Amino acid sequence: MALSFPSDFLWGVATAGHQNEGDNVTSDTWFLENVTPTVFQARSGKATNGWELWESDLDLVAGMGLNAYRFSVEWARIEPVEGEFADAALDHYEAVVDGCIARGLAPIVTFNHFTSPHWFAKRGAWLDESAPELFARFCGVVLDRFGDRIRLAVTFNEPDLPEMLTWAGLPDFIADLERQTLEAAARDAGVEKYRAGNVMLREDFGGMRAGMTAAHLAAKKAIKARCPGLPVGLSLAMCDDVAAPGGEEIRDRKRAEVYDYWLRLAADDDFVGVQNYERLHYGPEGLLPPAPDAVVNGMGTAVDPASLRGAVEYAHQVSGVPVLVSEHGVSTPDDEIRAGFIEPSLEGLSAAIAAGVPVLGYCHWTLMDNFEWIFGFGPQLGLHSVDPETFARTAKPSAGVYAELVRGIRSATA
Fold first, then answer.
1. Which of 214, 245, 250, 309 has its CA at a distance of 20 to 30 angstroms from the CA of residue 60?
2. Phi/psi at 15 (nearest 5 deg)?
3. Beta strands in 30-105 (DSSP E)
4. Looking at the whole model, is its pTM more than 0.85?
5. How many H-runs (helices) and E-runs (strands) does the chain carry?
6. Which residues contact 269 (CB under 8 A, 6 or more apart)?
């Protein structure tokens, strides 16, 4: 099948600050990693040392023939103390933006990729009534510095993930350990409630959703006040949920509980980001197991390239706005699986575009193996491996496959 994409399509990779930069010591996640007990299997430490190696990392992206780079600005670095903004951190991120442009890469900037400042978590994070105003102020400071050079602005990364994880069949001890982690953090921080965006209690879901909703709207207003033409959206975790005969009610209930609220909110945005890793099949009794001969990913579900098209089409169906594939990949130590997964996935995306879905771009997750939150450094989703001692990056075969596909597509549309 010929791959056909618009000539202005954004081809990129996605990364995130805390997962790559290292030493994010004024953040809530760093604090949670270092309490006892903690749900985190490892501490992020230097992560992949991306804070120091950002220039050579941008060279890797440009060297693959891509034209976009998605990364996050760390609120905890920019405002390490409430009300005090760090010029050195703003200088750093401005240099990254300018480094992207110098290499022909469109900067796609995420303003909250799960992590927030430690002081913000001590206030209760998104449960605090001042959270929207505080987040919008931070976004405004960033926009004042380099908003004129950003291509796309993503306010929140996967605000629907807590609801999605309730469908993931995680063992009860994880929820218990999350609660113990937050209780330990509150004790150590000397506050009644310590709350964070990526370790969340079920009784807080409603309040956190309301806080993030108000923060998204406030941030969008702050961004548009400074850069009216800058497209703004948010990115959602989205499986491609498929109903086997009799499974329609369960599939639709999951969609309603996890995605639909945010997709309807995105109807007033410029785009919606889709972050897709799985296609899940539901029967009348619930989730169906993978076929006996299926190739499975690190989550134990079948690797299915058709999942991307399904998720993108559903996102556009409900939101009515253009889609950015802000993350897509596969968790596996077997790079042959990753390398073979990219082209058929892009075929499905091309078919969705041909069927009328406006898609702005595709960002593969991720440039390199990194710190995968509570799972530590175990999961491997990168196009490059990283030496844990020297931080040397080594391209995997999948990086070459993706680069070759993009070069072919871009040359055909030039």
1. 309
2. -140, 175
3. 68-72
4. yes
5. 15, 13
6. 220, 232, 233, 234, 319, 321
